[in-house]
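Dear colleagues,

As part of the handover before I leave the project, I'm documenting each prediction I ran so the next person doesn't have to rerun anything. This entry is a single chain, and its sequence is reproduced below.
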Amino acid sequence: MNWIRRILGRRRLYNELSEEMRQHLEEKVDGLVEQGMSREEATMMARREFGNITSLEERGREVWQWPTLESILLDIRYALRQLRRQPSFTLVAVLILGLGIGANVAVFSVIDKLLFEPLPFRAPDRLVWIINQDTPGLSGRTSTVSTYEALTGMRSFEEMSTYEAFFARSSYKLAGDANPDRVVGVMIPANFFPFLGVAPMLGRTFTEAESQLNGPGAVILSHALWERRYSSDPRVIGRTVVVNDRAATIVGVMPRAFDFGAVFAPGIQVEIYMPVVFDVVRDWGNTMAILGRLEPGVPLAAAQAEAAAVIERHRREHPEIGEANAILEPLRESVTGRMRQPMLTLWAAVGLVLLIVCVNLANLLLARAASRHKEMALRGALGAGHGRLVRQLLTESVVLSILGGGLGVVFSYVAVGYVRQLEGLSIPLLRGVEINGVALGVAVGVTVLTALLFGLVPALAAARGDVGAALKEGGRGSSEGRDHRFVRSLLVVSEVALACVLLVGAGLFLRSFLHVLDVDLGFAPERTYALRVDAGENIDTEEKFLAYMRGLVSAARDVPGIAAASITDAVPLDSNRTWGVRAQGQPPEETVGALVKIIGPGLFETMQTPLVAGREFRDSDDTSHQPVAIVNETLAKQLWPNGDPLREALQVGNDERQVVGVVADVRHLTVEESAGPEFYLPILQRGTMSPSLVVRTGRSFADVVPALRAALAQVGPDLPTAGFRSLEGIVDRALSPRRFFVNVLTAFAATALLLAAIGIYGVISYSVARRTPEIGIRMALGASRRNIRASVVADTLRLTLLGAAIGLVGAITLSSLLSSILFAVTPSDPWTYAGTAAILLLVAVAAGFIPAFRASRVSPMAALRTE
């Protein structure tokens, strides 16, 4: 601890040493004076004998100090003084660094949450999702209750659980203790939360009795609903509410950190949890998402083999279940696997931005170092070695980088906070992103690395050389040294090349996104809105249900401003399910899986889905008339490639239904994915208890909605009418991941372009300033202002063209990695590359115009006088 005390009290020790040396010197002088010398002669003699006091003090101080730490502290103090003398340079450099480092830390935080950080569950590395078919859509990935029950006896699994996966299409009416509210809920078994290792913040989980048929009603609230509806009242436990007209007791409240939707249904806020009753959902088909936790040490391949054997035996014993499968997939891969390549692409993009920041700052420091070259050379002549000078300049870079890193952390907190509060983004785990210790560690590492990247080249260039060379480069009439010009030009070329790669990537993503927006969805989402109108338990007969649905549609159609209205049980891009169908007369093995929609009359008119042949459903298509169906073009071509579908019948399970219409394909699963086989059944013949009212307005929805709500309240007084969703919003949510990546990548590309423009402007402007005498001489010898401007712009274009050529070659090489996430655009899209080159050239000309104009305004006489 002595060395710590010495460092902290070094100024007192230094003062005492100086005072002691002065006393020794005075004693020597006094002794010489007593021997007969004058005081002036005695002082000179004493100083000669005593030696250089400053040098002696420095050697004496080394006894008390930790030389390396002391030297570093002195370097830091000197660096701070130098930066304080040039506030404009410091401010610009810190802002650029803050932007680059902040973007890197923010993007890393998102990537760490999505790809690297363990899922917030118990033993997450052993969790798997057991899917039925590795196909798009929930119906392919979900299984039946009987499949779940067959798998629960597997030895490879420590435990298993499940949940009803189609919860997003069945919002619930919550009432009984306040105004009716429309909430999203999911049905889970009693072991679901213990399986995940998540405990309620208040209350308890479900009991087995609550999961039985006719068992006591129970509900668990999300933390967000508890805050919103119950004002965080801890006495809510035990309170009775009504969920879809059935009484239930609030038995628990989940903690804030638990977000079911963020993991299992991105973009959807789950607000209540209810016990699933297997005896009720057993006949619903493939509706259960099955999760399992492997036994410790059991490899995935071994569990897969056992699951395949179990399912094969189950199919033999229960042939009615059809083509059941059990494909094991790590839960992490199921949740975020599709985001891996886009996120890594985003990480690469932000890394390029950081490199451009480093190159830009290296150019700024080279310009600054040129003005300090004489200072560095003179310090070297006075005894400072090259290593000492390089260390001093690197210290300045580190100090600058630390300031930028601090600002970058602030920027990253703001960016992450903004991303977390974005609504409707169907990107998993995004709401849980935070700046944690790992992210701060990355910030420190990026800060140090950045300091080395942008500081090393200028430090080596500034510390190199001698006094004579420095005076030649710094004297009057001299131009910038060739070495400096070459290095700065090389940095600008690198900056343009990196910006070119980013612009090409952003251009490919942007063109892909524009192609996605041009996709024919098969319906018109503009001014179209949907409201969940599921019937309550008091509507317990088919007659009541049909009367209720007809009443709602009729009431909506009578509202002024409503152009059309109908009913559907599945809004496009929002929910889906698959049933097996085949053409009448075909064997069961010819059955194909097709999306099924149960709809009311007039839906295609409301959705503006083109009718290709036949007719829509009518009010007369009820249970008293012939069973009918409508198929889409894809299913019609698949089942009757050479026939007329309107003359055929569709086999749906045991029902034979006459095909009465063919409609255009509708993209129900994703915007990017082409429509598959689909068919429609009339709601008046095949009722559903969770339909949505769909309305199309002829004017602003805000003008229509008060009257619409009042009209619907006349039919269903307890109907929560505040839950209208726009189909445009649903489409936006489906597009949200692609839009998110396009927006972020475009922002990075714009930043890179701006930094490249700054770099070009800085180099050309500095070159013009250094060449002012040369320009003056050329103008005195007859060069016109136009020739001078053309010369400067030509220098700009040479650097830009070289950088663009290198960048385009690099972009062609790297863009092939993006082919799997592009849509209707090839990685070598010529329009993107041509547009990138044009943008770079325009920006380069704009960046070089001001220096060129300034050069053409040089006065020959003033320039020659400076000589």
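The longest strand covers residues 655-663. Residues 126 and 296 are 8 Å apart (CA to CA).

All the best with the project,
I.
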